[in-house]
Amino acid sequence: MSVFLVHGFRWPRKSARIHIILNNIDDAAPEYMMARQSTEALNENFNKLFPQIMDNLPALQFIEPYDPTDETSAALTQPYCFISDFVERSEAYLDVTAVMNKGVKAAQWDALADLRDKLAPGEKIGWYVVHNGDEERVKSLRVGKGEDDGSITGSQSSRKLGGMFKQLMKK
Known about the structure:
Mean pLDDT: 81
Number of strands: 6
């Protein structure tokens, strides 16, 4: 099970679905935005729509809460996905204060606020703890060593996930 400390904002799933449909983003799955193919497709779309904003958000990630032990119908889709400009994964423990003290550059914060205003007006930008117990979703993320911080900086290739998305999009 993975726990993430993320800096960003909540993107309501309904708004995400509408954005994906209206912008004809075939490779993005609204119920699986954390996966490589969805993340790449959304980032490409955002770069096209908001180039000035995205110049300051080079490592934008989509982190979703998920509990694989919850078998209720409500667990199939979570109400939010977190759009994050900083993500730190915790394996056993995490010094939250140390991570938060690294801070976020002013230009990055302003760009995230501009993106939030376009996608999810009224949502709060802040630090969130997000639990995701689906290791397949977590494996689609690449944990890199940016500035020796261990933050998530991009996504990892996965042929298996690509086929899953094509099947999901056909339904």
